[in-house]
Amino acid sequence: MSNLSPRALTPSGEKTIQPTIRLEDVHKTYDLGEVKVNALRGVSLEIRRGEFVAVMGASGSGKSTLMNILGCLDKPTRGRYYLDGQDVSALTKNELAKIRNQRIGFVFQQFNLLARTSALENVELPTIYAGVPIQEREKRARESLELVGLADRAEHYPSQLSGGQQQRVAIARALVNGPSILLADEPTGNLDSRTSVEIMEILQKLNKEKGLTVVMVTHEADIAQYAQRALEFRDGKMRRDVAVQKRLIAAEVLPTLPSVDADGVEVLGKNADGKGSAKGPAISTD
User: Fold this and answer.
1) Burial 34-56 (b: 16+ CB within 10 A, else e)
2) pLDDT by residue (tens digit) across 150-188?
């Protein structure tokens, strides 16, 4: 895997950028005894390195099955999945586990943090599975927490963190082994509006500044507007693949949203005098 290059030669000898993700006529069928469920029906797509892609669709549309395949958590029944040019469709469970641990970061709606473990220790967990030397684990974990703005919360437990802070810890955990791809499954599903935009700001920053490829499942059209490209699934097929028009930039949206001051009062941006205006009790806990 280490000798794979993101570039290949065309027949004319010119260099082309190889997609980091390529699916070719992928089908996924679940055999439930007398019933067979066709979760994916001939999906073909390419995602290039450094793209930010939103995957949309109703429940049962196939988007979650797609993410399981992209994350090497499941295999296609038919078709091929190429990751950085390597066909991973027929790899063993151990080989797939190695890819997941080294090259793919996962973020989930439910955060999935260990309740009796500090933020730092939660972030360290993937480094243990990856066999990272003990002296390197804490260094990596602290760097990841700093990336998401939580360096000062390293010793806090999940119960001492807000929902948005817990999701930031989950993102830091996904980053700790230096993946090239981040798969986010409904990362804002449990968050209020402002906190959701804060999470989008982090993902956009990682995508832009670190070159991380981001694939995000969401059922919220407004959240999909923060991606560069949107894929829409229905009945196991990809029905649309479009560039996002009038893409939202989270860093520009945040100043227009209510925030919370030290007294727990919601503040609506800045007035001409720069002081801001108050609006009743707070909605956000961040």
Assistant:
1) eeeebbbeebebebebbbbbbbb
2) 999 999 999 999 999 999 999 999 999 999 999 999 999
Residues 188-234 pLDDT 10s: 998 999 999 999 999 999 999 999 999 999 999 999 999 999 999 99
Report d(CA 58, CA 242) in Å as an integer.
17
Q: In whole angstroms, what is the distance from residue 110 CA to residue 186 CA? A: 9
Was domain 14-248 assigned CATH 3.40.50.960?
no
**What pTM value is reported for the model?**
0.83
Terminal-residue alpha carbon distance, the chain: 41
Asked if 173 and 264 count as a contact pair (C-beta separation under 8 A), the reply is no
Strand order in the sheet with 86-87: 35-47, 21-32, 78-83, 86-87
Closest to 96 (Cα-Cα) out of 72, 76, 79: 72
pLDDT of residue 259: 76
- From the number of C-beta atoms within 10 Å of its C-beta (0-12, 13-18, 19+), residue 282 rates as middle
Using CA atoms, how far apart are residues 29 and 37, in angstroms rounded to an integer? 6
Span(s) in the chain for CATH 3.40.50.300: 14-248
Euclidean distance between CA atoms 220 and 232, whole angstroms: 12
Among 153, 158, 161, 145, CA closest to 116: 158
Q: How far is CA 152 from CA 120, 122, 145, 221, 284, in A?
A: 10, 15, 9, 33, 20
Phi, psi of 134 (to 5 degrees): -60, -35
